[in-house]
Amino acid sequence: MSPLEQRIRAAVATVEDPEVPITLVDLGVVRDVRVEGDEARVVLRPTRLACPARGEMARRVREAVRSVAPAVRVEVDWEMATWRGSDVSGRGTEVLLQIGYADPGAGAATACPFCGSTDVRSEGAFGGAVCKVPFSCRSCGSTYDALKGSAVAAAAVGGARG
Predict the structure, then answer these.
(1) Is 6 helix (H, G, I), strand (E, B) or coil?
(2) Could you say which architecture CATH assigns to the domain 3-78?
């Protein structure tokens, strides 16, 4: 890997999601970064196919690349595949739990990120953003979100939780 590609990859790795304070790399949105000559190609997979923040994510990625390589042309491509909670890195899962999100890889048996109780309920199919599903914990009374593409949210939206 060239020094230029290393710098570009490092810059892209710092870009955070507009809705959730986690890097796009840790969230599993960044799928590939390639540098050939004076062109960088970054492939992203949105957490929701209709994500309204796609333009902002692309802008942030372009800005990050240009901050370390102003002469490089940046191409951002969207992979229209289904994002899953299992795409989140281990570090990303830790960050999500620390900021009060459900474990994206937990499956339908979600636990409250604050107290660990599994006595939780879905509060509907839509949260504060299109990519979030709200939950509440019956044990500690906390509210928290699950990312909509995760198995946790899919089970809640599908009516598996009540």
Answers:
(1) helix
(2) 2-Layer Sandwich (3.30)
φ/ψ region of 141 (left if φ > 0, alpha if ψ in -120 to 50, else beta) reads left
The pTM of this model reads 0.86
β-bridge mates for residue 34, sequence order: 41
Contacts of 116 (CB under 8 A, 6+ apart): none
Q: Which residues contact 29 (CB under 8 A, 6 or more apart)?
A: 17, 44, 45, 46, 47, 57, 83, 87
The answer for residues whose C-beta is within 8 angstroms of residue 109's C-beta and 6 or more apart is: 118
Q: What is the pLDDT of residues 107-159, one digit of tens each?
A: 666 899 999 999 999 898 777 777 888 999 999 999 999 888 765 555 555 54
Lowest mean pLDDT among 29-33, 44-48, 56-60: 44-48
Query: d(Cα 35, Cα 37) in Å, to the nearest integer?
Result: 6
Residue ranges covered by each domain of the chain: 3-78, 85-157
H or E stretch covering 7: helix 3-12
Q: Which amino acid is at 57?
A: M
Band (101; pLDDT cuts 50, 70, 90): very high
Nearest to 32 by CA among 72, 73, 76: 76
pLDDT at 159: 46
Q: Specify the amino acid at residue 159.
A: G
